[in-house]
Write a structure and sequence with these properties.
By secondary structure, the protein is α+β, with helices and mostly antiparallel strands. Among the domains are: 9-41, no CATH class; 129-192, Ribosomal Protein S5, domain 2 (2-Layer Sandwich). 30% of the residues lie in helices and 31% in strands. It contains 6 helices and 8 strands; from the N terminus they run αααβββαββββαβα. It has helices at residues 9-16, 22-28, 35-41, 90-103, 153-162, 178-189, and strands spanning 46-59, 62-74, 79-87, 106-107, 129-133, 136-142, 149-150, 167-173. Strands 1-2-3-4 form a 4-stranded antiparallel sheet. A 4-stranded mixed sheet has the order 5-6-8-7. Helix 5 links the parallel strand 7 (149-150) and strand 8. Helix 1 (9-16) runs parallel beside helix 3 and helix 3 crosses helix 4 (90-103). It starts with 8 loop residues before the first helix and ends with a helix. 33% of the residues are buried.
Length: 193
């Protein structure tokens, strides 16, 4: 990235070559404040938009429409993140959401925790995990190889971007609130660091 001029100490260290991969950066425990760090270390990152919502507010001059976008990024190899962005223009809101998702990237541990499989490959999660955010409760269980992602569509996108190929899931409570569903999923995946 020739046009990137880092502003933080972490960004300057990454550009200088002190950190060779994203795992070294995540192990420092320092927050990633520049999305270019993730672009520099993970060039093959994929982004998916989960939700685009138009919101309106009434002012003296009329109705003002703005867009709120929820995005997920991942490299399909154990790194995944999510973020939101809001703007009066859809393209700017989408870009903000993707950049926020890059700044919130986490590394998850993969494995084969299914008692039916025990193959030792990294196709599922190593153990049962669960989390609750607001009124949404998400539970993920390891599954045998070849089962696929037995989840709803939004969880399929998140888990496939994380590199998980086989998992069972259970979602209870408010399933229609995508923000809570994604936050609960990432809270559960955060237990696999």
């Amino acid at each position: 990235m020739e046009g990137w001029d880092p502003k933080t100490e972490l960004g300057k260290a990454v550009k200088a070559g002190v950190y060779k991969n994203i795992d070294e950066v995540l192990n420092t425990g320092k927050p990633i404040l520049e999305h270019e760090i993730v672009d520099y270390l993970l060039p093959n990152l994929r982004a998916e938009i989960l939700e685009v919502r138009a919101t309106q507010r009434v002012t003296d001059s009329g109705r003002k429409t703005s867009y709120k976008v929820l995005a997920v990024v991942g490299d399909e190899n154990g790194h995944v993140g999510y973020g939101t962005g809001k703007s009066i223009e859809l393209a700017i809101a989408r870009e903000k959401a993707i950049n926020n998702a890059k700044r919130n990237i986490i590394r998850i541990q993969r494995g084969c925790g299914s008692w039916e499989c025990r193959c030792g490959q990294e196709h599922s999660i190593p153990r049962k995990i669960s989390a609750k955010v607001s009124a949404t409760y998400v539970e993920l269980l390891p599954a045998p190889r070849g089962l696929g992602l037995a989840t709803n569509d939004n969880l399929k996108i998140i888990l496939s971007l994380a590199g998980v190929k086989d998992v069972w899931s259970s979602v209870r409570g408010s399933k229609s609130n995508i923000n809570s569903l994604v936050a609960a999923t990432f809270k559960a995946l955060g237990q696999l660091r």
